[in-house]
Design brief:
Elements lengths: L2 H9 L2 H14 L3 H21 L8 H37 L4 H23 L9 H38 L1
Helix pairs in contact: 2-4, 2-5, 3-4, 4-5, 4-6, 5-6
Length: 171
């Protein structure tokens, strides 16, 4: 195997490593920093909704309550999204390195669950944060959403390939 292939097989893991480090850095924020980030995200979403005419504020108190109500869904969606991206990066790295489709899915899911679990353990040591099994489940659900989409696409391509093979035989 030449040096470029070896280099490619190693470099393809960099996006997964980058995402894992990013997740770790978000988890390293104390409770106040994390809540502040969620507040900003909720405020941006509500401001966009207001500009589009989807949300109307009667007063600043209403906006503050809406921001508070949006925090949990924003956090959980962010968890699912970041772990879906992590799974995608791991999956691509396995596929690029020649691991079979089925095993790439299984190994990607397992590595994501391990990272999510270790991340929640890490949060036990951060002020104002807590490690929760429910968050591991939410992270895993994000991973499963990505893998479900990949599986549906793969299945569709396999069916299409079979139809093409059979249509060529009929000629």
């Amino acid at each position: 195997m030449d040096k470029f292939k070896i280099c490619g097989r190693v470099l393809i893991w960099l996006p997964a490593i980058f995402i894992a480090i990013t997740i770790f850095s978000f988890s390293n924020q104390n409770g106040d920093e994390s809540q502040g980030l969620s507040n900003k995200a909720a405020e941006v979403i509500l401001t966009a909704g207001d500009n589009l005419g989807l949300v109307k504020f009667t007063d600043t108190n209403t906006k503050a309550n809406m921001i508070e109500d949006l925090q949990v869904p924003i956090r959980k969606c962010a968890h699912m999204g970041e772990y879906a991206v992590l799974t995608m990066c791991i999956f691509i790295a396995f596929m690029f390195n020649g691991v079979a489709f089925r095993w790439s899915r299984i190994l990607s899911l397992l590595l994501t669950i391990i990272w999510a679990s270790s991340d929640e353990i890490h949060q036990l040591f951060i002020a104002g944060r807590a490690g929760r099994f429910l968050d591991v489940c939410i992270d895993t659900f994000g991973s499963l959403i990505f893998l479900g989409i990949v599986s549906l696409i793969h299945h569709h391509l396999e069916v299409k390939k079979e139809k093409n093979i059979f249509s060529e035989l009929d000629l």
